[in-house]
């Protein structure tokens, strides 16, 4: 028996390779041209997923896709209007056509209407926010469940809700109502598809520095400062911080989490 002490110095090559959070998964992302959706697309690709980006604005989608590819990731995009059921199904099917399967989906696309009391919300605005923020996620989840079931067999879906869905929302009543309904759809889907191994969760972001919050700031100057004053961390989130929560919920590291609306709000609702 050789008892000579080893002189070998461990190196990085000796360490086990660190797998990405979403290594080997195919991810479909709506609202992926900007804000949280674009941050998620970049993050998911860095974490090893092959991603399909969907949104209405092609130049934004193309820019994010090219950025991901330049960084060594695998990405493609498709124009998709969440108000169009056939278009949503076609977008989800495109992910399967490109990559052979669907494992995870992040339903992030949303719109906002001018802030103000409920009696001042225009009917046309209410109808529009319903179609995009509630009907859209419903259409997407239905298509995604079918695609996951037919290919990967098991998987995960995350919907973007809002901390504004967890309380009365006098400044954005229609927006808050649709997001609260998304919470209900999320929980119902989790109960329905859990036995098949399909997990469904939602994230409820607080104030996040996206184009949407900047538009709200433009119409209601000082709103970000007021929101930050009621946030224990005293700041707004970067979109990547919200995307990180979605990535974890979509990953196998959250394998026993379903039916949850996870607050990512800097403590605003604590």
Classify the oligomer: single chain
Q: Find the structural class using helix and strand composition.
A: alpha/beta
Order of strands across the main sheet: 3-2-1-4-5-6-7
CATH architecture: 3-Layer(aba) Sandwich
| Average pLDDT for all residues | 92
Q: What pattern of helices and strands is seen along the backbone?
A: EHEHEHEHEHEHHHE
In CATH terms, what is the fold-level topology? Rossmann fold
The number of helical runs is: 8
Unreliable stretches: none
Number of strands: 7
Would you mind describing this structure in some detail?
With 270 residues, the chain is of the alpha/beta class. The protein has a single domain (21-264), classed as Rossmann fold (3-Layer(aba) Sandwich). Helix content is 43%, strand content 14%. It has a seven-stranded parallel β-sheet, with helices on both faces. Helix 1 (35-46) links the parallel strand 1 (26-30) and strand 2 (50-55). Helix 3 packs parallel to helix 4 and helix 4 (123-150) runs parallel beside helix 5 (173-193). The radius of gyration is 20 Å and the shape is globular. The N and C termini lie far apart (62 Å).
List keywords for this structure.
43% helix, 8 helices, alpha/beta, Rossmann fold, 270 residues, globular, 7-stranded parallel sheet
């Amino acid at each position: 028996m050789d008892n000579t002490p080893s002189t070998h110095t461990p190196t990085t090559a000796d360490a086990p390779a660190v797998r990405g959070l979403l290594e080997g998964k195919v991810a479909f992302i709506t609202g992926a041209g900007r804000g949280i959706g674009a941050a998620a697309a970049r993050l998911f690709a860095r974490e090893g997923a092959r991603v399909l980006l969907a949104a209405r604005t092609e130049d934004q989608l193309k820019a994010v896709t090219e950025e991901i590819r330049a960084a060594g990731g695998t990405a493609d995009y498709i124009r998709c209007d969440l108000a169009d059921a056939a278009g949503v199904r076609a977008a989800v099917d495109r992910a399967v056509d490109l990559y052979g399967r669907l494992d995870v989906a992040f339903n992030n696309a949303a719109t906002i209407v001018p802030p103000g009391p409920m009696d001042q919300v225009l009917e046309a605005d209410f109808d529009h926010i319903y179609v995009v923020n509630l009907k859209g996620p419903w259409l997407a989840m239905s298509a995604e469940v079918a695609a996951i079931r037919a290919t990967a067999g098991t998987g995960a879906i995350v919907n973007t809700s809002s901390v504004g869905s967890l309380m009365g929302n006098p400044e954005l009543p229609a927006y808050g109502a649709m997001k609260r309904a998304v919470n209900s759809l999320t929980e119902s889907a989790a109960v329905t598809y859990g036995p098949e191994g399909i997990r469904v969760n939602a994230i409820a972001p607080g104030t996040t520095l996206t184009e949407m919050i900047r538009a709200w700031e433009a119409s209601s100057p000082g709103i970000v400062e007021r929101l930050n004053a009621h946030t224990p961390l005293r700041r707004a989130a970067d979109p990547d911080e919200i995307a990180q929560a979605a990535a974890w919920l979509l990953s196998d590291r959250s394998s026993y989490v379903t039916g949850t609306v996870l607050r990512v709000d800097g403590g605003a609702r604590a």
